[in-house]
Amino acid sequence: MDWTVLLPHIPRLMDGLLITLWVTVLGTLASVAGALLLAGAAASPFGPVRGIVRVYTEIILGLPILVLLYLIYFVAPDLGLRLDEISAGVLTLTLYYSPYMAEAIRGAVGSIPPGQIDAARMVGMPGLSIARRIVAPQVLGLVIPPLTGLMIGLAKDTAILSVISVQEFAYRTKQVVSRTYAPFEVWTFVAVVYWMLLSAFETLMRGAEGRALRFRESR
Amino acid sequence: MLMTAPPPISATGIVKRFGAATVLDDVSLTVARGEVVCVIGPSGSGKSTLLRCLSWLAPPDAGRIELAGERLGLVDGGERLRSAAEIRRQRSRIGMVFQGLNLWPHLTAAGNVMEGLVTVRRMPKAKARELALAHLDRVGLLAKADAYPARLSGGQQQRVAIARALAMEPEILFFDEPTSALDPELVGEVLDVMGALARQHTTMVVVTHEMSFAAEAADRILFMDEGRVVEEATPASFFGNPREERSRRFLDRTLSRYRLLVRSP
Q1: CATH for A3-218?
Q2: How much is the ipTM here?
Q3: A46 in contact with chain B, both atoms CB, cutoff 8 A
Q4: What is the pLDDT of residues B168-205, one digit of tens each?
Q5: How far apart, in whole angstroms, are the C-alpha atoms of residue A78 and residue A170?
Q6: A–B interface: beta-carbon pairs under 8 A
Q7: Which of A9, A105, A144, B76 has the fewest other C-beta atoms within 10 Å?
């Protein structure tokens, strides 16, 4: 075992890690935005809008993310949608994760007792104020745990983008392995980096959840 | 010119249907300023729905409601619905205390009382807080002003809810079974606050199963069954000598346990 073989390749790996972080951030932001849109549409008074959301959600739930990625990167160009690898990757993550995140948001909103909304209506608050001042602050704390799980899933799934040659962390790792012939050291190192970052993120989010739901403490 | 002030609330011919079921069937009710009306009756008789109609949370299918002389929900003359903003303004003149514990859990007791003052009445925060503290003091909870609802007992939460309703200085207060979600030992403190409001001649409509409260605090009893007002009387006449057979049966059923306690030597 010789860990020093890693040293000359650290910059190459870090370049990959940066791409991974970049794709994760873009994918997360876009997914959350998409999820808000989907959750809003799912609550629409118009039946057809709700129908579209339901069909879309069903389709995504039944697809492996790898298949979705291939469809977007290899099939969509035939239909006129040509994207570079990173855009195709971010789009895949967004399309794949937003319905799951929308479900998390819907669940949190649905857990607010309707009596609280009635009480707000009775003091004369308009719908927007109710959403902003009564629902949102509570939903924020409630969605953090399921959303954190999904964000971590999304972060890990960025490794799949290596199959369409996005030069992210896992892609660079394979490159480094083929140059060093030291799969043990390289993959172990990469696994530890993934694990540390994701664990740190989870701890951070748990703290955020605790702060957001502090009002619930009964003593 | 001398004019009599219009009653805080006056409703005539209220009908409410849910699908095929008629939950309220031609109910009329006028409450005079300073009057306390207790609405009693078996579960499912339409008592809560009546309050939801009178506050436009569940707009009635027919009938006419006037809030301090102003047509509620609809533009007078036609049957055109008022704008959402108009309805909100009207609704904010009605205070409602619900059956469930409906405080906003992410706001402190004072925050709950201030919310309507700040977001609806556009009151500066400092002034709203001052007012909120005064109303919390009125329900005996000044010391809990900065506590979150999770740290309050059910009875304390309902008292904050009363303060929240009072702070908007409503024309009338509606109580929808405010003690039925509470542990028995917490009922008294809430009824005490309501009794004090009644003695101060706060205009109130109270839907309740607490017969002793109704007997003591009400100026008038409205007995409902199957969506209709069956009997309307003073507490003395209603509890002492109910006119209607259905009232008598209801009282027999609900009061039997008290009678047992009273009669046994």
Answers
A1: 1.10.3720.10
A2: 0.91
A3: no
A4: 999 999 999 999 989 999 999 999 999 999 999 999 99
A5: 28
A6: 79
A7: B76
